[in-house]
Design brief:
Oligomer: single chain
Number of domains: 2
Largest sheet: 7 strands, mixed
Radius of gyration: 23 Å
Number of helices: 8
Helix content: 25-40%
CATH architecture of the largest domain: 3-Layer(aba) Sandwich
Number of strands: 9
Structural class: alpha/beta
Order of helices and strands: HHEHEEEEEHEHEHEHH
Distance between the termini: 89 Å
CATH superfamily of the largest domain: Periplasmic binding protein-like II
């Protein structure tokens, strides 16, 4: 009997310990390892990593600076598709999806979001020689095809604003420029796109596409994190705020922004007082 009771006590004390070990939070893991494990997507605005998993685009520099301010390092662990960004959260394959992602209601079912680092205009593009469309309303008709990317803002925009048009979706791992090429070659009539990506495409392929109409959406570029990771969110948000207030975000944006107005820095939550003698 004594042996049985002793064994029972060992089980009762051991199981909770093992359970706690298995359910280590992303925040606890980041603090313990001093490493933020990032999933990522590769597209026209974020360079694919080289063999050492290093990036050179604007958002990667923003993330690296954020990590340095927190005393962490970034480890790029897995490429994911836009339609499965948060698939690895439950299994603990990565701590965050780091690449600048919009706060979309469909993503809120499986992810939380940090504060945005920057904002990006999202507009519609058609062939440069297109004469059928006078404004965006002309796209919301039967027989009009619009290229989209599964799980990305383009899909949300088309289904919300242009429900009568035919959607031509690409898989979540396709390059953004594939949609622009589809429009340029007449395989689709239009595609909504971040203006920075479209401007870069136009610089390399002049005379192929043009903007139609004005702003469709203003996208906030965030980091995706698992649900209920409040401590992790607070830690990352604090670093983002510090980078905004000390001018680091603006400095990095100016370094990387090729086309004025395609990347917007959040306005600070205060109005600086005028310096004595200034007019």
């Amino acid at each position: 009997m004594k042996t049985f009771l002793l064994g029972l006590l060992i089980v009762l004390f051991t199981v909770p310990a093992l359970s706690a070990e298995r359910t280590e939070s992303a925040y606890d893991r980041v603090v313990r390892t001093k490493t933020l494990r990032c999933a990522y997507t590769s597209n026209a605005s974020a360079s694919a990593p080289d063999s050492g998993k290093e990036f050179s685009d604007m958002f990667s520099e923003l993330l690296t600076e954020m990590a340095q301010q927190l005393g962490l390092k970034i480890e790029w662990v897995k490429e994911v598709s836009y339609d499965a960004l948060s698939a690895g959260f439950q299994a603990g394959r990565y701590d965050a999806v780091c690449g600048g992602y919009s706060e979309m209601p469909s993503r809120a079912w499986s992810s939380d979001f940090t504060k945005p680092f920057v904002f990006s205009p999202f507009v519609m593009y058609v062939r440069a020689t297109e004469t059928r469309f006078k404004d965006l309303n002309d796209l919301n008709k039967n027989g009009i095809s619009i290229a989209t990317l599964d799980g990305e803002m383009s899909q949300i925009v088309v289904r919300s604003d242009f429900p009568m048009a035919q959607e031509k979706p690409f898989s979540g791992l396709a390059a953004a420029t594939d949609r622009l090429e589809m429009v340029a070659t007449g395989k689709a009539d239009a595609t909504p796109m971040e203006s920075a990506i479209a401007e870069e495409y136009t610089a390399k392929n002049p005379g192929k596409i043009k903007q139609l109409g004005g702003l469709l959406r203003m996208e906030g570029s965030t980091i995706l994190i698992p649900h209920n990771e409040f401590a992790l969110k607070n830690m990352l948000d604090t670093a983002i705020d510090a980078m905004l207030w000390n001018g680091v975000i603006e400095k990095i944006v100016k370094k990387h922004e090729k086309y004025p107005g395609t990347v917007l820095v959040p306005a600070p939550a205060y109005q600086p007082a005028p310096v004595a003698g200034e007019k």
